[in-house]
Amino acid sequence: MNQRADREQPQAATAESWLGHRLEVRVEAIAHGGHCVARHEGRVIFVRHALPGETVVAEVTEDRGGSFCRADAVEIRTAAPDRVRQPCPYARPGGCGGCDFQHVSLPGQRALKAVVVAEQLSRLAGLRRAVTVQPLDDGDGLGWRRRVRFAVGPGGELGLRAHRSHHVVPLTHCPIGAAGVGDAGALQAEWPGLAELEVAVDDRGEVVELAHRQRPARHRQGDRRRGDRRRATRPVLSTEQLSGPPALRYSVAGRLFTVHPAGFWQTHPRAAEVFTETVLRAAEPRPGERVLDLYAGSGLFTAALAAAVTATGRVVGLESEADAVTDAGHNLADQPWAAVRRAAVSAESIAAAAVELAGPGQPRGVSIVVLDPPRSGAGREVLGAVMAAEPRIIVYVACDPAALARDVRFAMDAGWRLDELSAFDAFPMTHHVECVAVLRPGGPAGTPAG
Ligand SMILES: C[S@@+](CC[C@H](N)C(=O)[O-])C[C@H]1O[C@@H](n2cnc3c(N)ncnc32)[C@H](O)[C@@H]1O
Questions:
Q1: Ligand 1 atom at minimal distance to the Cα of residue 264
Q2: Same domain for 278 and 206?
Q3: Ligand 1 centroid – CA 266 distance (Å)
């Protein structure tokens, strides 16, 4: 619902902006993005801090005209059963924009995310499917986030940005941050001159601090000369490690991984292990099989897949970040039949990896493709190349259900089917949800949405 409205161009300006208006509304369904849908005088209002079924007073926070505007629930007239007192003092209308669901019980948050995943699959893939979002642990939804990039306010104070705003809400702590991150000593200091300060912690409790500064203008001009308009208009940051060890270390099922301080690693402490188990259970890799691991990072899935296919098989990962590829080289040193290559995932790099997997003079033959793309998803070209490699199964790890549903549609159009879908509450208190989808060739194209 929200996305359709988001895509619509604002109509000719409405007679009067509703910005700042307070409207009593009945809250309808949850929508993708952490807000609920309400309606008033024929327009859609996306209301944050609300729950389906509630009656609230919504204060309009953004109105660009057209079919929809945005609002915060500032008074709750009739509360839904899942409403709780938010554990974070900064999560409130006009406050920190980092969490969307602090006012919802954990089971309620999972139920909302399940509705969103099912709705995206229905609307974008045309599939009707019951979805359950599983917790990763039995915790209280706090203290899990092992990497946070804090914004720096005008006086040098650390905080997080308000929703859809550059305004920095100063924080003394972040309740969803893991020990060492949410209570980082850096939060008590001022950081004039920095754009952002990033804090991350590893399994040993070692903490790194990274300073991000605006790069001098002459570098930004260089970006402009190269014709990259997007990079030239976005702030370009340089990064410097201020403290902590030269590498972070994580352990998954007894295997140690090294990750450079700014590198990607699953942020919830249980996520790496649960996602790896889910990928292996779905793919059932057998000794001798050949596997492609796209968007491989520092080799988390590559290593597990390599152990399963044994030295008679092969695993090739593709990853664009140079430091992650270096980390993967260390992490896979004892599995010489597995490697992560530095490449942007594309039809060409997938075809080249398929040739490498086959070995010299051998026919192509990729048994399994695992992909774990960024939020934007893989897209038609990449999925097309994956399917052209003719694996027996594709396991798609997705952090955005809308991008996943769109990519599932592309696969279905090419004669594949969505066979299984698992969803995990890897980001409690936020609207984010991680899905693992299993695609197989042939068969009926799923249960069409009615
Ligand atoms: C969600 S992370 C997954 C990493 C790994 N599977 C893991 O779980 O640790 C996505 C990875 O894709 C990489 N990436 C993003 N866009 C890419 C592209 N176009 N080509 C190759 N790698 C890309 C990022 O650097 C990042 O390491």
A1: 27
A2: no
A3: 11
